[in-house]
Write a structure and sequence with these properties.
20 strands, 7-stranded mixed beta sheet, 13 helices
């Protein structure tokens, strides 16, 4: 039974908190059981989810499985394989003044009732992957899908209560009013993925209850291409990373920094790479997605004049289509460089070299990801030591977030906290200190 539809947010939270207080969610058997049910939900209903993702974002079935359905299944499998190990108490040395018979350790305790607020760009993965960690940690979960991906939200609202423990997991659909009502409630953790503007609203609401938050935000993730890099390889990997999901990816390469000579060669290589990926008419390619709505289409269309169009530049508002576009000769003060693009527009900004690139990156907000294409160990070392970013990838965009044993998260304006794998357990649990001194 789907409890979420007739209930008010306050009633949903109260009901789940009552379940949590019974201790029902704490046994490892309950946690692994929920994860297996979630996995079955995905394997049995993948086609329905893929169809919804196509309706919302024009995602191909291949992309829907690769980036949302199979991605989450891998996260579940990794968690099931290692959960016992991650939850094992860790002993701590006891100082001599407490006597030789005292023992101490840390253990992970569930937090309670967790709110997960998902965005529209990966509306299945970015709702379900955080839920994997929250359930594995023994929490009750309120899931809030994005109203901007209505088909996916509707499918998830039907599937989740049908497969998971509906007394401990609830889905609340809706827009700003429903989210605002949820944020007025006291949660034990809030996990939000989205933009910084709403992130601040979430954090202010959480502060009223001293609720900890994880904010997975975004920002302009830079790319530095060093002199001498194989530009055909760089262009192929950049194009695949940038134009996945029509550029609507929080860790997509946002702009490229390179010297003028390399910029000219890279521009030509990107033209070839785009045609290889999507053909001469990307609008007809079944593998190329669409912009989520007209508002974002209009915002992105206004950025197309920020530089010389090397490839792309076309658009069709009725189809919410913007061609995979590369802009050359981009002025750092142009509109496309003032905000996170979050769409299929890749600006190339010429800088004299590595020193200037590092200064350029450090003069701006800390990005969610930073990508570097170089064979120079010295360049890699300087980038690592002299910049700050949520993640750092050499030679391949986006790939770091697919490694379950790496934390995924931002820093500064790009977010706070992290998850995936064991880092999700740390996020959704309290690491409690325990000491025992025998009374004898």
């Amino acid at each position: 039974m789907n409890h979420s539809t007739p209930e008010q947010p306050a009633d949903v939270v109260a009901r789940l908190r009552a379940t949590f207080r019974t201790g029902r969610t704490k046994p490892v058997e309950w946690r692994t059981g929920q994860l297996r049910r979630l996995r079955a939900m995905l394997t049995e209903n993948g086609a329905d989810l893929a169809a919804a993702l196509h309706a919302d974002l024009g995602k191909s079935s291949t992309e829907a499985y690769r980036t949302e359905i199979d991605f989450t299944i891998r996260e579940i499998d990794h968690t099931l394989e290692h959960l016992d190990e991650w939850l094992r108490p860790e002993s701590a040395p006891v100082p001599a003044h407490l006597g030789g018979d005292a023992t101490a350790w840390t253990q992970y305790d569930p937090l309670g009732v967790v709110l997960v607020i998902a965005p529209w760009n990966y509306p299945a993965q970015l709702l379900l992957a955080p839920m994997v960690g929250a359930l594995a940690s023994g929490n009750a979960v309120v899931a809030k899908p994005s109203e901007l991906a209505p088909a996916t939200s509707a499918v998830l609202a039907e599937l989740i209560p049908a497969h998971l423990d509906s007394d401990a997991v609830a889905v609340v659909e809706g827009g700003v009013p429903e989210t605002t009502a949820l944020l007025a409630e006291r949660f034990d953790h809030i996990f939000y993925t989205g933009n910084g503007t709403v992130g601040r609203i979430v954090m202010r609401a959480a502060a009223e209850h001293l609720t900890p938050v994880t904010l997975e935000l975004g920002g302009k993730s830079p790319v530095f291409v060093d002199r001498g890099a194989d530009l055909d390889v760089v262009a192929d990997r950049l194009a695949r990373g940038k134009f996945l999901n029509a550029g609507q990816t929080c860790v997509a390469p946002d702009y490229v920094l390179t010297d003028p000579e390399t910029a000219a060669g890279l521009e030509a290589a990107l033209v070839r790479a785009v045609e290889t990926l999507f053909g001469t008419d990307p609008q007809a390619s079944p593998e190329y997605g669409r912009i989520v709505n007209e508002r974002h289409f209009d915002r992105l269309s206004a950025l197309l004049g920020s530089g010389r169009v090397a490839v792309g530049g076309g658009s069709d508002r009725t189809d919410k289509y913007i061609a995979p576009t590369v802009l050359a000769d981009v002025d750092p003060k142009s509109p496309v460089m003032q905000e996170e693009i979050f769409g299929p527009v890749l600006p190339i900004v010429a800088v004299p070299g590595l020193d200037a690139a590092i200064d350029f990156i450090n003069d701006r907000d800390k990005p969610l990801a930073l990508y570097v294409f170089t064979d120079s160990e010295r360049t890699r070392g300087r980038i690592a030591a002299e910049t700050s970013s949520g993640g750092l990838g050499y030679g391949l965009p986006l790939a770091h977030l697919t490694v379950s044993d790496l934390p995924f998260g931002g820093v500064g304006e790009s977010g706070m906290g992290s998850y995936h794998g064991r880092y999700s357990i740390e996020t959704f649990s309290h690491r409690k200190a325990v000491l025992v001194k025998p009374l004898g």
